[in-house]
Amino acid sequence: MQETEKPSLGSKLLVESFTGPVTKNEITAFKAHIRDVKAPASADGNVYVYGNPGKVIEACGLMYEITNDQEILDRMIYYCDNALAGRNDLATATNGGQRVVWTGKIEPVWPPSKANISPAGAGIEQGSVLAHMLYSAKLILSNPAIWNKKVSFGDSKGFGLTYKERALTYVKQSDFVIENWILPYFVRKDKKFYFPDAPNTYKPKEAAPWNQLFMLTNGLIRLSQCHILLNDAQDKVKLYDELITENINWFKRNVKSYTSSLGTNCWIFDYALVSRIEDTNHFAYESEGMWLAYDAAKYGVTKADMMAMANTYFDVVLANIQNGRFAGNVDGTTGKGHAGGDNYVRDEYIYLAAIRPEKYETVGKIEQSTGKIATSPQITARLLWLKDRRFKTGE
Fold this sequence. Notes:
Elements: H1 24-35, H2 52-67, H3 70-85, H4 126-141, H5 163-186, H6 210-230, H7 234-253, E1 256-259, E2 265-268, H8 280-296, H9 303-317, E3 321-322, E4 325-326, H10 360-369, H11 372-375, H12 377-393
Antiparallel strand pairs: 1-2, 3-4
């Protein structure tokens, strides 16, 4: 799975300090930036999986948690509307949809492959798109005061005039993807996530790589949370929670503990069940997935688990620098490609500074020195979200 970190278009973002409350200037800068960031013309190519369009949805959600600012929520909904409308079975052929997938059918997916590739590919990374949309639904459903208000920019795509109607659409359509794509093809009887055999050509009959496993658990976690907020579909909640728990436990059973040179407990693991050492490109998604499960406080992810993840990043990855880049693998080594290392902290890793609070300013200064704060809404929003959390809790 390829990934590039490119600055989004828009005015410069801002973090005025790494202590104290989030400031008016920081919020104003974020709002000005996202006003200029347009949704992409097409939803293929994984743009809503791990691309900037998907990441800006997360950024809006975090900033809405801080501010309760309706303009930010509306911008989040704008991106979610475009993501949903771009789904293969919902988009017209002229808008990149109606493509035959490897199943021989037009499926409810966002094809990772570009339009000139046939048949289209798709797998469990689809859960990441659901996770982004469902973050918006979760925020709406957590705030009954706005349920019956109309979304400010209307409903040109027919997803619901009011905030609650919009949220219900995201939930319904996410259930549809799980029931018609994920469950029939990617869940074994033991509830583990595997790829099917032919005609699927991507890792046929192999276990899902850990990073993709967490993309799906992220979507299921938020889908379960939305149904709990709605107090409905208890059968779905039960199933989703069982899938989440089994697959996260599967991951945990396949990590090995070791002690870093700093004397901290860390984890070492492969990219997939039987594979090469995990690289720090993909480790970001495992960190985010473990955080979301830990934050949900119901899937058996402990503080000790998160500490091992945080120690691995801070005491191994950031502690080993080669040619100006942090380690490219979870064991502190560096290779090529995805294992080539970064000179900045990927946005997903910022959650780990909630586990190791003393590393928050370290992370902030790295992002500042590499210019990421000015250009990356996902990095800046996560820094501000954690800054707000630290100020309110006194960490």
